[in-house]
Amino acid sequence: MLETRYLLNMDNISKEYYGNKVLKNVSLQVKPGEIHALMGENGAGKSTLMNILFGMPVIHTSGGFEGIVEIDGEKVVIDAPHNAMNFGIGMVHQEFMLIPGFTVTENIKVGREISKPTFLSHIFGKSLESLDIEQMKKDAKKALADIGLNIEEYVKIAGLPIGYMQFIEIAREIDKTGIKLLVFDEPTAVLAESEANRLLEIMKIIASKGIAIIFITHRLDEVMTVADSLTVLRDGEFVARKDVKDTSVEEIAELMIGRKVVKLVDDVEDKRILKDDDIALSLKDFHVNMPGEMVKGIDLNIRNGEIFGIGGLAGQGKVGIPNGIMGLYESEGTATLYGKELELKELGNALENGISFVSEDRRGVGLLLGESIEQNITFNAIQIKEDFLIKLGPIKLYDKKKAKNHTLDMIKLLDIRCTGPRQIAGNLSGGNQQKVCLARALTMNPKLLIVSEPTRGIDIGAKKLVLEYLVKLNREEGLTIIMVSSELVELRSLCDRIAIVSDGKLAKILNPDAPDAEFGLAMAGAKKEGAN
Amino acid sequence: MKDNIVNFISENKVVVLFVALCIGAIYVSGNPLTFVAGELFTRFGRNGFMVLALLIPVLAGMGLNFGITIGAIAAQIAVFWIIYWGFEGIQGFLLSVLMSTPIALLFGYLVGKLFNKMKGSEMIAGMVLGYFADGLYQLFFLYVIGGIIPVYSDRLIIPGGIGVKNTIDLTGNLKYSLDTVSMLQLVEIFFYIAVAVLIFKMVFNKVKKTNSSIAKDLIILGIAIVVYVLTFIPAIEAFLASDRLLLLYAVTIGLVFMVLLQIWRIVNNKVIKKDNEYSIKKPIALIIVAGILYAMTYIKPIEVILMYVNIPVTTYLCIVGICFFNNMLLRTRLGQNMRTVGQSRVVANAAGLDVDRIRIIAMVLSTVLACWGQLIYLQNIGTFATYGAHTQVGLFAIAALLVGGASVKKATNKQAIIGIILFHTLFTVAPQAGKQLFNNAQLGEYFRVFVAYGVIAVSLAMHAWKTNIKPSVKQKA
Amino acid sequence: MREKIGNIYNNIGLPRIIITSFFIFLLVISVPLGLNILNLLGDSIRRWAMYGILVLAMVPAVQCGIGLNFGISLGIVAGLLGATLSIELGISNPWLGMLFASAVGILLGGLLGVFYGFMLNKLKGSEMTVSTYVGFSVIAFMNMIWLALPFKNGNLVWPISEQGMRNTISLEGSFGLILNKLWSFSIGNPATGLFVPTGLILFFLAVCFIVYLFMRSKVGMAMSAAGENPEFTRASGINVDKMRIIGTAVSTALAALGIITYAQSYGFLQLYNAPLMMGFHSVAAVLIGGASVGRAKISHVILGAFLFQGILTVALPVANKILPEGNLSDVLRLIISNGIILYALSKTKGGNK
C-alpha cells in the first residue's frame, strides 16, 4: 500500500444540470509538484469538473454537486472563486483576464495591490490606504524572473504579443502567496509553436518549485512531453488514470474515443451509386477566418449523393468550413458547386446557388426567436427566391395563405410539436426548434444540404427522427448532405466518409468502420512524423 | 522635428482646433483682452469646480456623468431653505454645504444603484434621469413648497401662496459668500484645522500604538505656528485682509512656488535619496521657464491684464483642492480599484472586487462634488434661477471637459482646466463675434450652444466608433 | 391563475399600469369638477391624431435595429424646411402647399436619413446615446440657419432686416387646419361638444396602413429580421447594414411628414428650440403603448400616442381646477416621458444601445 499523499483529491464527483448528468462518479488526484493532464473530448466533463474545483457560481445556482474535495488530505468546501484562491488554487484562463491599458505590474497585482496605511485609512478603512508602488514593482519583477520572462514591469500590456500575455497571466497566479496548484485550460490553443514550447518549459519550471499543475488539453504530444500523469474522461465518466511513462499516444487516443459501436439509425435500403468523378462540392485551399474555428487550408471533394461527415474537436475548425462556404465569415480559396465556382465574397451567394445550411447556433443564427414558425420557415425562400410573395408591380407583399399551407405541410412532415404555424419559435423545445431550422433549409429545395451539429441538445427520440429523416432525404431524393458534428457516433452511423479536421487542416478521411485509435489520433493532431 | 509637430497636432486635434477657434473669435469680436480675461477668470472660478467633478465617473468606467444635474438639484434644495431661514454670508454658505451634502449623498447613492442596473447604458440613462429629476424638482418647487409644505415669504413665493418664484436674488444673503472670504480668514481657519488634526493624529497614534513617527507631525505643527505668527506682521496682515488677489501677485506667487518646488525636488532626489538616475535637466528647465514667464509679465499688454483681473482666492483654492483630491484618489486603493473597474468589469470581478459597490462610491463622490460645485456657481452668479439653474449644467460642464481633450474613457485635471478656459473664452466672445461677422449677436449665442451640443455629439460618436473598431481588429489577430 | 396574472403584469409593466390608471382617474374626476368631458375627449383625439405620425416614425427605426430614434429632429427639420419653403414660394392652394411641403420634407428627410443611417452603422451598440445629442446638435445648428436663411416672405421673417425668421409662423394663409376641417363633424354643439377632425384621423390611419404594408413587404420583413437578429439575417444573405439605412431613412422621412401634420393641426409652425424635445416625447409615447427598445408595432403607436397625449390634454384643465397655478402639463410631461424611458432602458439586459 503506497503512501501517496495527494495535494488534491476530488473523489466521486457527480453533477447534474437540470436532469442531465454531466459528471458521473469522477475522481481526480494530483500529487504536489506534479504536472497532471486532464483529457477528454468536448462534453467529457473537464470544464464542469474545474468549475466545481473553483467554486464557480454556476455550479451552486444549478443545484451543487455530490462528492468530496480534499486538499492536503483535508475536506474543503469551495463555494466562490475567491475561496479557491485562499486554498492556493489558481487558474490561467483561455481568455486572458488582463487589462490592456494597465502595466504588467498593475495586472500582476490587480485586486491585490500592496498599500500602506494612511491617516484617513485608519478612519475610513482600507480603501484609502496609499499604494506602495515600489513594493509592487519589486514583487512583479520577482514573479517575472521566476518564470524567466524578460520584460520590464512598467510596460503596458496592450502592445505585447499574445504569448507574453499568457505568461503574464501565469506570473499573476504565482505571485499569489501560497499557490499550490495551477490549472491551465487549453493554454496552447492560441499560441504559435515556439510560444507553446516556451510555455511547456515554464510549466516545468513552476512544477519544479513545488506547484502542482492541472493541464487541460487534447494535444497528445504536449502531454507526452511535459506531463507526469494523466486522467481521461469520457461522456462525464472517469475512464483511466495513468502515469505518462506507462502509456503511449495510441493508448490515450483509444481511451478518449471509447469503444461504443452504436448504430443510431436503422438500416435503410441503399441503391445509390457514388462515383468519384461526380463531385457535388469541391474545396481547394480553403481558408476561413472564423475566430475560434479557423480553417487553414483544406482540400475536399464531396461526391454527388453521398452523406459526407466532418468531425474533430471543438475549436479545430470543422465548424468554420460551412460558415465559410455560406459566406458568414471571410474565406479564401475556391469552392466549386457542380462545376460552378461560388462567389463567396458575395453575401448569400451559396444560398442563391442552392446550398442550404442548418447552423450549429440554433438560437443565435438559426432562428428568429420572436417570430412565428411560419415566418421562420419561409424566410429564406421569401428573400432569396421571392417565393411566398404576392407581387403587385414593384411591391411584394407576404402571401400569408401560401406560407401557412406550406408550414402545415412541414409541420406534418417533420412532426414538429407545436400549437400551430403561428406559434412563436422561441417557445418551442430544442428539438422542435431544430426541426424548424431544418424545415427552413428544405423549403429552399437545395441541391446540397449542410447540417452542423444537427442533434445538439436534442433528446434521444427527436435525435433519431432527425437523423432518419436526413437519411431518407439522401436515399429517396438523392440530396447530397454534409454533416458537421462533434459526436463521432453520429457521424459513424450515417456517413459514407468522415473527414477529421485538426488545427484547421484536414487530418484524415476515414471510413466509418475504421479503428477507434485512428479516429483518436487524427482528432488529437498527433504529429505525423512517428509520434510514439 | 516636423513629425513631432504633426504628431502633436493629431494627438490633440480637439484642443488645437478650439485654440484656433478662440483666437479667431477673440480677434473678430473686437473685445478688449482685459474684458475677455476678466470674464474668463470669473467664469473659471464659477464653473471650474463643477467640471472637475466629472472626472471620477470617467475613471470608474461610467462615462460622462450626464446625471450631474442631480447634484445641482441637491444644492438648490438646500439653498432655498437656507435663504428662507435667513442665513447669510459665509455661515449661510457653510450651512448650505452642510445641508446639501446628505441630500447629495442620498441622491448619488440612488443614481449609482440605478446605473448598476444599466451597465453599459449609463450615459443615456444619465441624460434621461436628469430630465426626470428636473420634472420631480419642478413638481416639488411648484406645488409642494407653499402647498403641502407651508412657506410664507413674499420674496420667495409666487403671489398666490403656492410655488417658488422664478428668480431669487441672492444679494445680501449668499451672493459672493465664498468669494469674499479674505485670505487672512483662510489662513486662520487652516491654522486651526491644522493644529486640531495634528493634535488628534498624535494622540490617536499614541493611543493606538501605531508607531508612526511623531517627529514629522511636530515639524509640521511648528511650521504652522510660524506661519500664523507671521500673519500678525502689519504689512502682511494688510495684504492678506483682502479677499481678492491681483492676478499679477497670484502669478508671481505661483511662479515662486514652482521654482521652490523644483529646487526641493533636486535637493530631495540628489542629496537625500541619492538617486543617481534622477535627471537634473527637467527641474532646471522648469526653473528657466518660470524665469521667462516672470519676465513676460513685464510686457505691457500682459501686465495690463494682470493688473486688471482680481481673482477670488477662496474659490480658486477650492478648485485647487478638488484637483488635489482627484490626484490623491488615484494613489489610494480605492482609486486603483475604480480604475480597474473602469478598464474591465470582467477582470475586476474575477479579481474579487465588488464592482457594484465601487461604482456606487464613484457616483456618490461625483454627485456630492457636483452639489458643491453648484453652490459655488450660485454664490458667484448672485441670482438663483429656480427652474433653470440646473438644467444646462450638464451640457456646459461636459462640453467644457470634452473641449479640453478628454473623452468618454479618459479625463484628467489638466484636460478639464484647459477645457474650461477654452470653452468659456469662446462663450464670452461668441456674441460679439457674431455681431461683427453677421451683424447678429443672436447668431453668436446660438453658435456657442451649437458648439456645446456638437462637441458632445462628436465625442460620443467617436467613442462609439472606437468601441466598434476594436472588436473587429481583435478578430483579425 | 396567479401565474397568469403575474405574467400579464410582467408583460405590461408597472409604469404602463400606473399611466393607464392615472388617465382613467383624470377622466373620471373631470366630471365632478365640472369640466366638459366631451371637449376633453375631442381634444385628446385631435392631439392623438396630430402627433401620431411623429410617433409612427419610431417603428421603422426600432424594427431595423437602431433602437429608439431620439434623432428624429433631423426629419423634423426637413419637414420644417419643406413647409417654410412652401410658404416662401407663395403656393396659394393650401392642398398643393401641403403636398409640396410634404414632398420636399419626405425627400429631404429620406436623404438625411440615409446619411444618418451610414453614421449609425459605425456606432452599433451606442445608437441611442449618440442620436440624442445628434438630434440636439441639429436643432442648435438650425437655430443659426433660421437666422441666416435668405427668405423674404413677410409671414416668415421679422420685419426688421437681418433679424432672421420668426419663432412662430402662422399657417392661416397656407395649409393650416386643412386636414382637420376635411369631412369633420361635431357631436353636439361645435363649441362644447365633441369635435371629430375626420380628415386628420383618416390621414393618420392611412399613413399607418402604408407603413403596415411596408412592414409586410419583402424589404420590410428583411428589415425587421435585421433588427431582431442580425446574424440570422446575414446568414440569409441580406445586407444588415443596408437594412438599417433603409429603416433610418424611412423613420426620418416619416418624421418630416409628422411635423407637417402636427403643424397644420396646430395652425402654426414652430421653429428654433420648440422641437428640441419632440424626440423624447415620441419615444415615450411608443414605449407607453407597449413597445420596447428592440420591438415596436403599429398597435403600440396607436395606443401609446393616445394615452400619452390623453393624459397631457386632460391633466392641465383638471390641475387648473384644483391648483389654480402653474403649468402642471409641462411638469407632468417631463416626469411621465422620462420615467417611462428610464423604465424601458432598465429592462434591456446588458450591453449598450
Features:
heterotrimer; B: 477 residues; mainly alpha; ABC transporter involved in vitamin B12 uptake, BtuC; two-stranded antiparallel sheet; 4 strands; globular; disordered C terminus; C: 353 residues; two-stranded antiparallel ribbon; 15 helices
Write the layout of secondary structure elements.
The complex is a heterotrimer of chains A (532), B (477) and C (353).
Chain A: E1 8-17, E2 20-30, E3 35-39, H1 46-53, H2 57-60, E4 66-71, E5 74-75, H3 81-86, E6 89-92, H4 104-108, E7 115-116, H5 119-124, E8 130-131, H6 133-146, H7 162-175, E9 181-185, H8 193-208, E10 212-216, H9 220-226, E11 229-234, E12 237-243, H10 249-257, E13 279-288, E14 295-303, E15 307-311, H11 320-325, E16 331-337, E17 340-341, H12 349-352, E18 355-358, H13 362-366, H14 373-385, E19 389-392, E20 395-398, H15 400-414, H16 430-443, E21 448-452, H17 460-477, E22 480-484, H18 488-494, E23 497-502, E24 505-510, H19 516-524
Parallel strand pairs in A: 3-10, 3-11, 6-9, 9-10, 15-22, 15-23, 18-21, 21-22
Antiparallel strand pairs in A: 1-2, 1-4, 4-5, 7-8, 11-12, 13-14, 13-16, 16-17, 19-20, 23-24
Chain B: H1 2-11, H2 13-29, H3 33-52, H4 55-59, H5 68-84, H6 89-117, H7 122-144, E1 167-169, H8 183-208, H9 214-230, H10 234-240, E2 244-246, H11 247-272, H12 281-296, H13 300-308, E3 310-312, H14 313-330, H15 333-343, H16 345-350, H17 355-381, E4 383-385, H18 393-403, H19 413-438, H20 441-476
Antiparallel strand pairs in B: 1-4, 2-3
Helix pairs in contact in B: 2-19, 3-14, 3-17, 3-18, 3-19, 5-6, 5-7, 5-17, 6-17, 8-9, 11-12, 11-13, 15-17, 18-19, 18-20, 19-20
Chain C: H1 2-12, H2 14-30, H3 37-56, H4 58-64, H5 73-88, H6 94-121, H7 127-148, E1 168-170, H8 178-181, E2 185-187, E3 194-196, H9 198-215, H10 218-228, H11 230-235, H12 240-266, E4 268-270, H13 278-288, H14 298-322, H15 328-347
Antiparallel strand pairs in C: 1-4, 2-3
Helix pairs in contact in C: 2-14, 3-9, 3-12, 3-13, 3-14, 4-10, 4-12, 5-6, 5-12, 6-12, 10-12, 13-14, 13-15, 14-15
